[in-house]
Amino acid sequence: MNILVLLKMVPDVVEELEVAGDGKSLDTSFLRTIINERDDHALEQAILLKERHGGKVTVVALDAPDIDDTLFATLAKGADRAVKITDAPEGLTTQSAAKLCAQVVSGLLPVDLVLTGVQALDDLDGLSAALVAQQLNFPYLGVVTSVAAGGPTATVLKEFAGGVRGEFAVALPAVLGVQAAEKPPRYVPVAKVRAVMKAQKIDTVPAPGDVGAAQIDVRQLAKPVVSSHAEMLDGSPEEVAGKLVELLAQRGLL
Amino acid sequence: MAVIAEDMKELTLDNLWDSPEGHRVLSCMQCGMCAGTCPYGEVMDYPPRRIIGMLKAGELDAVLRSQSLLTCVTCYACMAKCPRGIHLTEVLLPLVKEQTFIQLTDMPAELQKALENTDRYGNPLGESPRKRADWVKTSKVPVRMLPSDRKPTDVLWFVECYTAYHPRGQDNCRATAKLFHALGVDFAILGHEEKCAGECARLAGETGLFDKLTDYTMKLFGKYKFNRLVTSGAHAYDTFIHQYKPRGLQQEVDHTVTFLARHLDQLKPKLKKKLNYTVTYHDPCALSRHNGLYDEPRQLLQAIPGVKLVEMEHNRVNGICCGGGGGGMWLDTYYKAKGYERLSERRIKEALATGADVLAVACPYEVSRFEDAVKTVGGDKPLIVRDVVELLAEALED
After folding, report:
1. Cβ contact B212–A187 (<8 Å)
2. Is pLDDT of B2 > 60?
3. What is the pLDDT of residue A92?
4. With contacts defined as CB-CB under 8 Å, which chain A residues touch B211?
5. B109-264 has which fold?
6. Alpha helices for chain B (secondary structure H)
7. Going from the N-terminus, what domains does chain A have, and what CATH number goes with each?
8. Which of A85, B1, B41, B240 is deepest in the core (most CB within 10 A)?
């Protein structure tokens, strides 16, 4: 089966995020980007399906810093082709990014499944996959935790609140927003990534021109305001226990 | 013990028999000393003796499938005891381990995370590379950082990961800085530019990551002028000697323990505070069995006023590994799930049996491993875990 995986890079929160001087964007001087965790799960699910049913996995991503390393790693993990969308306009909204990706996907048809992460940590909208499905006129299911394919439909497990799961049959081709793959994303040895960097290449396609005007403007980006703080109790275990009991008594909790 | 990293460069399991080490492996008489001395010998499906037998029989696939070598903590015990002098932990086991690693279908999650972190952030803890030298802010003596002050230094101090980031490792850093300062050593560190030396990635089987890290660090060493490399990491010391030197590292290499032992005449008069501890010393595998450094740490401990040194049942060449080498640092959950005893706990039971107040160590992995094991094992009286440098710094006059 032909599977297409859409992935994007998000800020790596190992470094503390800082607001840039304009008060509307992130300071990029020390910012590194990393593959969106849910997209990594979408890739894993795609490779698992390929291992079971054969076929081809194509990874599509918008150009971003560090994107080449990420795409080579997807090839080393088992993707067959990596496509980078270049020269996209700055500051794409979820809607315009989805429109843009859908146009690129249209040029890569036919596909059986389009998989992408159900959410990304930089917006948490959870809309991209649904919007791509709408553009392509494909059915959509989100918060997917496993996919079984074979034949004209796929059987998809979707997670609901409280751990309740629903099983759905979805006609192919379809777009799925992946919450988690059936197993955690695999490790790829560094030597394998380095070998892929020498042997394979990343395809590029220019971003389609018309993605519509941005309808949302960021007015302000701010760090949370500290409103209260934790109090650390110092001293020996006995002293700390004493202070703790005193505090609880003071607040009428004993 | 011979250093043969240079001969290993192009060695694979396929051309092993054509090499001098391959001939040594062929001389194996299946005595089983390796399996008997291996701390996990009784739980491995294929301990070293059987691996050699399977390799000779062309049955290595079964060994790889068994994932036996995930249980090898590269403690050099088998190699130290082999009557044929086969360099098991230097050659055969890493080659088999590398293949085991490549073929792993389900990588233990903690090991995977540690390796991904090491690749991405230069440390297995997954901490910010920019914060690698944050501990310096808490040092009572000045610590020069080469990226912002490039002038040549006598000693380049390679701090290493657990020392730089782990809260108890940072105690080691502050102690080392205090000792260097007391001795008037001209020293500097690499600050945020330093990345993991990579030895545990190599011995976990991730040789590609090790190559990437050595390429990076060798280039970094080339950027600065220094006369001597001193590291707090026992594994870093080991790899600088056996892997980086064949790759062109020119400068002399010390572990903090060997460096301080050589300066003991100057250091001893400064150790004025009486500590009154009974101390037992745990030999880190990478310093002891692989590099013969048994006496230096003991000399340092005995130079501290009031310290009484006692030995554990297994000591020196017979010392039991803490279980942290060869990726074991990130396989505790895997071993526990398999029902294996944690080696750090086995070791703590021996340390408690000596009646010592303090367990002294010299490898940054050991402090957290043993402090955790003290909590799980318990005991009649508290056992304190301290790095040798921490004890020395404590004995310094303030």
Report:
1. no
2. no
3. 87
4. 190-191
5. Rossmann fold (3.40.50)
6. 20-26, 33-37, 48-56, 60-66, 77-81, 92-103, 109-121, 161-165, 167-183, 199-204, 207-223, 234-239, 256-262, 264-267, 295-302, 332-338, 343-353, 364-377, 388-395
7. 2-206 (3.40.50.620)
8. B240
